[in-house]
Design brief:
The protein is of the alpha+beta class and 398 residues long. The chain is built from eleven helices and 20 strands. The strands form three sheets. Strands 5, 6, 7, 13, 14, 15, 16, 17 and 18 form a nine-stranded mixed β-sheet that branches. Strands 1, 2, 9, 10, 11, 12, 19 and 20 form an eight-stranded mixed β-sheet that branches. The chain binds flavin-adenine dinucleotide.
């Protein structure tokens, strides 16, 4: 325990997104010590945790045995229970992954096996009749139905988790951007803090915070923007996905219903020249840093990355290409029914060999810090289970 004092905490969490807030809640619930969360923004949910698709994934497309697969399946259950208990808007509407040919049907069968291996319950492949009964707008021969998929108001979810953490004793300090860390002293734009243990949950800036403490060596966050279009007048009852390309950590453009009744198409996966460049602007300092990194060059030299950027670049900058992508799932949609919607940015970790890391990465340093370095999708779904997993390890170490 650190010595008591207004700004001394046993656990100091940097970043109050869904991951930081869930870890604060878990530590406070266990009475592990005093807890504070610092966030650079005036309110919570302004980045990935409030700008995502709002889907509580069932865990079907995660590699069996991976940390993400375990956390997604368990986290899905925890999140649905939490939302019911705390009156967070959530609808258990199920997920459909649609196939239009034999090759895509083979992907559905792979997903079925992966999902079963990860422990996802209730999965089954349905035929064309049941698909059109469930989703009259969707076109396909078969679909993988996952009944545990749900939609949630993601901003309300992060606020409710943070509220519960506060009710259990954690303190949240807003407008507190962390600019430096010297041993146990965390220097922020609000005040300075002393910490027994620092937990880095800074999302898009997690590699920078890690570097302040000698962690995350060789890894770099490369931001990928996900853009959405709202489709008006299209009846969608659940979530409709294309059969994904399992080589990439991103799902293709899909349809999601939001809890307030909108239908969204997206997200794209476009390289972003700024970590918070939601409006597609170029942030010169961050872009130069990214382009100068060996991680970026090795990523660029992989043919798969170029294919991803070429395909998503077209969708990102041409409404016609976006419409063509949408029509693969619902051929009757007209351009007049599309309205641009907000975007989100993924904090994708790329290792020194230029590979996009698919699993969650946590680095525990014996000197008293923990770094969440790759809380990628479905990080919101996984958050409550992931928090328990991380806290088990932190409180067990001396
Ligand atoms: C487009 C998109 C769609 C997605 N869809 C889904 C989905 O449908 N379902 C799902 O489960 N997951 C989804 N995800 C993934 C999910 O949103 C993330 O895994 C999750 O939100 C990560 O949470 P986080 O707390 O790590 O990050 P964030 O929410 O980004 O939180 C990080 C926090 O750190 C703060 N911060 C950063 N730097 C500092 C600093 N120096 N000092 C203080 N504070 C700092 C930021 O202000 C921010 O609040 C999606 C992600 C994106 C981008």
């Amino acid at each position: 325990m650190v010595a008591g004092g207004e700004n001394n905490y046993d656990y100091l969490i940097i970043g109050g997104g869904i991951v930081g807030s869930s870890i604060a809640r878990e530590l406070a619930a266990r009475g592990a010590g005093s807890v504070a969360v610092l966030d650079k923004e005036p309110r919570l949910g302004l980045h990935a945790s409030g700008r995502n698709s709002g889907v509580l994934h069932s865990g079907i497309n995660q590699k069996p045995g991976s940390l993400k697969a375990r956390m997604a399946v368990e986290g899905n259950r925890f999140a649905r229970e939490f939302c019911k208990e705390h009156n967070v808007r959530m609808q258990e509407c199920g997920t459909l992954v649609v196939s239009r040919n034999e090759r895509e049907l083979a992907v559905l069968n792979t997903l079925l096996e992966m999902g079963k291996a990860a422990g996802v319950e209730g999965l089954r492949i349905i035929g064309r009749d049941e698909l059109s009964e469930r989703e009259p707008s969707a076109v396909g021969d078969n679909a993988l139905l996952s009944p545990n998929g749900a939609i949630v108001d993601s901003e309300a979810f992060v606020r409710a988790v943070a509220g519960d953490a506060q009710a259990k004793g954690a303190r949240f300090v807003m407008n507190a951007e962390v600019t430096a860390i010297r041993e146990r002293t965390v220097i922020s734009k609000a005040e300075n803090f002393e910490a027994g243990h620092v937990i880095n949950c800074a999302g898009l800036y997690s590699d920078r915070i890690a570097a302040m403490m000698g962690a995350g060596k060789g890894c770099r966050i490369i931001p990928f923007r996900g853009e959405y279009m709202e489709i008006t007048g299209l009846p969608v009852n659940s979530m409709i996905y294309q059969a994904p390309d399992l080589r990439y950590p991103f799902l293709g453009v899909h349809f999601t219903r939001t809890v307030d009744g909108r239908v969204l198409a997206g997200p794209t996966a476009m390289l972003s020249f700024g970590r918070e460049a939601y409006d597609k602007r170029i942030v010169p300092g961050e872009s130069i840093g990214m382009i100068a990194s060996v991680n970026f060059w090795r990523l660029v030299l992989s043919g798969e990355f170029l294919r991803l950027v070429w395909h998503n670049g077209k969708i990102s900058f041409s409404d016609r290409a976006f419409l063509a992508e949408i029509r693969t799932l619902a051929p009757d949609v007209e351009m007049s029914r599309l309205k641009p919607y907000r975007s989100g940015i993924r904090a994708q970790m790329v290792d020194r060999r230029g590979r996009m890391v698919n699993d969650m990465v946590v680095e525990y340093l014996p000197a008293g810090s923990t770094h969440i370095l790759n809380a990628v999708s479905p990080g919101m779904t996984a958050a409550l289970a992931f928090a328990a997993h991380v806290v088990d390890r932190i409180v067990a170490s001396p």
